[in-house]
Amino acid sequence: MRARFRSPSGPDVVNRGSFTDSSGLTNTIWFAYWLKPTRHRSWLAEGMGSAPVPGAGWWREEALIPVEATETLHTHRQEQYPTGGLAEILHQQPTELHDYWGSARDRMRESSAPPTRSAAIEVHGSTVDVAVEGGICLIRTAQDWSGSNAFREHFLQKVQSVKKRGVTYLQEHPGTGCICTREIVEQDMDGRPLDRACTVAWFVSLDHLLSWTHLHETHLRIYRSFFSMLHEEQSPLDVALWHEVSVLPPGSVRARYVGCHSATGLLPLGLSRHE
Hints:
7-stranded antiparallel sheet; single chain; 7 helices; globular; 4-stranded antiparallel sheet
């Protein structure tokens, strides 16, 4: 994959990480961002190269994200903390639309899309193709403590542990509207762990994501633990936090799973109807 990403039509940003999924299996994940859909199509047309090692499955989830239907929020500027994602290539604009419930919706020019509960599915042997038919919400929310001294110990021992419990709750309770969630340790391109982590989750709608963040006790505990940390430590915050949230219209999300178990990614959307 590293060689493939170095193609002339390769992505503008590549990040890497690893996580253990709900079935206890280790996944290596690459975040690849293209600013131009035409280059992404050219890259796909070049083929995926050699197959994975025997016994290993692989999956690919693609989202064509409209600029007007996505928003980002960062506690620090890129020159202070060189975090991953879109901030590597897009200038961060200060915004007054933050620090209140629902501000993510207000930062989007277009945040409405019908919620999705199903997807079209095609099965060819061990390969399953999924096309999401309704709207769907994608979030990548990240933490970077690589330059932290004042808050590092408190953040890792208290805040991160509470956040992980919240992510586990989402993973185990699809009634929240969370289709899947992944708790990822970020890595450099050679697979060495970084002092960064992120959570990536698919929700059936933005309303379901906002409802969990605003009302559910598992997220309110995360919120309280973070502000308790700020209250106890008087230094300027030196843990960088950021997120990307997108509301994706029908037809903009496709995925392929090869040799994967039925709980992988967006498969529950398609297999529930297929069965």
